[in-house]
Amino acid sequence: MGVVLRVRWRNIIILNGLVPSEEKSENSKNSFYEELEKVFDYFPKYHMKILLGDFSAKVKRENVFKPTIGYESLHQDNDDNGVRIVNFATSKT
């Protein structure tokens, strides 16, 4: 689901998604991220895109993730969904 807000200087696209849980198959996760990639690429790069949703992600405190998630994390380990969403977010900036 998504909403396009037309504002003075640029459009703001707000997307909401629900990632398959960690127990789901790799195929279902790959399908979700492929579809998300298509939706993101549909809109021009100069639009502001905000991604919201339940990503069922765990991302631990590692230096490699700090530019994306900041310096605080509640988790002591990573899971596949956490690594996927961080990789997606960093590839779209």
What does this structure look like?
With 93 residues, this protein is of the alpha+beta class. The chain has one domain (2-91). The protein is built from three helices and three strands. The protein has helices at 26-42, 66-69, 80-91; strands at residues 2-6, 11-18, 48-54. Strands 1-2-3 form a three-stranded mixed sheet, with no helix packed on it. α1 links the parallel β2 and β3. The radius of gyration is 14 Å and the shape is globular.
Short description:
Helices cover 35% and strands 22% of the residues. The chain has helices at residues 26-42, 66-69, 80-91; strands at 2-6, 11-18, 48-54. The two termini are 21 Å apart.
Give the topology:
Blueprint (H helix, E strand, L loop, with lengths): L1 E5 L4 E8 L7 H17 L5 E7 L11 H4 L10 H12 L2
Parallel strand pairs: 2-3
Antiparallel strand pairs: 1-2
- Report the average pLDDT across residues: 81
Strand order of the largest sheet: 1-2-3
Helix proportion range = 25-40%
Strand content: 15-25%
Structural class: alpha+beta
Tell me the Rg in angstroms: 14 Å
Largest sheet: 3 strands, mixed
Low-confidence stretches: none
The span between the termini is 21 Å
Domain unit count:
1
Helix run count: 3
Principal-axis shape: globular
Instruction: State the total count of DSSP E strands.
Output: 3
What are the secondary-structure elements, in order, as H or E? EEHEHH
Key terms for this structure?
93 residues; alpha+beta; three-stranded mixed sheet; 3 strands
